[in-house]
Amino acid sequence: MFRRTKSETATTVPAEPQGKPGGKGRPTPTRKEAEAARKAALKKPRNRKEAAAYRREKVRAERVKMQEAMRTGDDRYLPAADKGPVRRFARDYVDARYSVMEFALPVLLVVSLLGVVFSPAFPWLAGMVNLLFLVMILLIAADWFLLTAGLKKAVGAKFPNESTKGIGFYAVRRTMQMRRWRLPKPMVKRGEKPS
């Protein structure tokens, strides 16, 4: 009376369970894995000494990542002042060109040393040193203007919706450093077009 007929059992096929739309997309962790993750999250330092050691280790790990990013140019771990495609483009723009500002510090140092050492023996040298200082300052000002104007124009063409605020001073600050000491390290050769 309450039994199934053969036709009902043959036609009724249980549906296979389907993955939920919007599911988590990974298998459920085992109890052992879940407990280990929970214990690791809840593990807090017991005293100030352990807390300080934990903070030091965390800061050291972040510093190592940042130093590696300075060498490789990895945007994820760069300092906030160097992050983003606009800053990357500005660095490449500066590194691809020769600049008066790059060589200004060594030249001014040599000129001032020559003035200090040889001016007692050659009084006319003091006037030459002053003239060289004035010429270098004028060249630096011209280079500064050309760099910032060219960079802002190039950034405006490549990134039309991005702000160029502060990009000129960022480039000038980078230009004042000798190429081999710049951080993040230069990623383009001199004369190469920035990408």
Salient structural properties:
mainly alpha, 195 residues, single chain
Question: Can you tell me about this structure?
Answer:
This protein is an all-alpha fold and 195 residues long. Helices cover 60% and strands 0% of the residues. The chain contains 7 helices and no strands. The protein has helices at residues 6-11, 31-42, 48-72, 85-95, 100-118, 124-158, 167-175. Helix 4 (85-95) packs parallel to helix 7. The longest helix has 35 residues, at 124-158.
Instruction: State the helicity in percent bands.
Output: 55-70%
How many DSSP H or I helices?
7
The whole-number mean of residue pLDDT values reads 85
State the separation between the terminal residues, measured CA to CA: 81 Å
The shape is elongated
- Cα radius of gyration in angstroms: 32 Å
Uncertain ranges = none
Query: H/E element string?
Result: HHHHHHH
Strand content: under 5%
Provide the structure class.
Answer: mainly alpha
Main sheet overview: none
- Extended strand count: 0
